[in-house]
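User: Thanks for the earlier help. One more: J domain-containing protein. Can you show the sequence and predicted structure together?

Assistant: Of course, both are below.
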Amino acid sequence: MDEECDEGTGIIEEDYYTFLNISKDAPNDEINNAYRRLSRIYHPDKHLDQSQKKEAELLFNKTKKAYEILSDPHKRAIYDSLGTRGLETEGWEIVQRTKTPQEIREEYERLAREREERRLQQRTNPRGNVTVNINATDIFSQYDEEDEYDYEIGRSPFPVIEVSAMSLMQSIEAPL
């Protein structure tokens, strides 16, 4: 059987190694040979009957997808670590191609957390508002006097700025 059930999600996971009938540590030449062999069998142009042609096309596309993933060392490492769901995650273009399977798994988990956070942001639509009242009249009152360089004794040459009020407001939507 070329599919297995993922315990966490209950989703049936495709096993490309089983589909191509190769071992998990197969070298690239073995992957190439398996791809060529199955491509000759499942190529849609080899079949005349329309129903067989459609079925062959599905299997041919699956063969191509398995080959594309297993022949690329980076995609293969992701597939080996996380399965097909790891390959469907957006954002893998930021992952360096020199990462170990453990680092790829950690990157996948980070991207999944970010995706979940974005989803929650969209559902709750958080909004914040900060209001600050500042008294800055001292800045301009210094220039009302005729001689701007004649400071009063004991008065600072720097203007005094006061925060007279501050308020914070946060709101979220809670869909029921």
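User: Great, one quick takeaway?

Assistant: Residues 1-11 have pLDDT under 50 and may be disordered.
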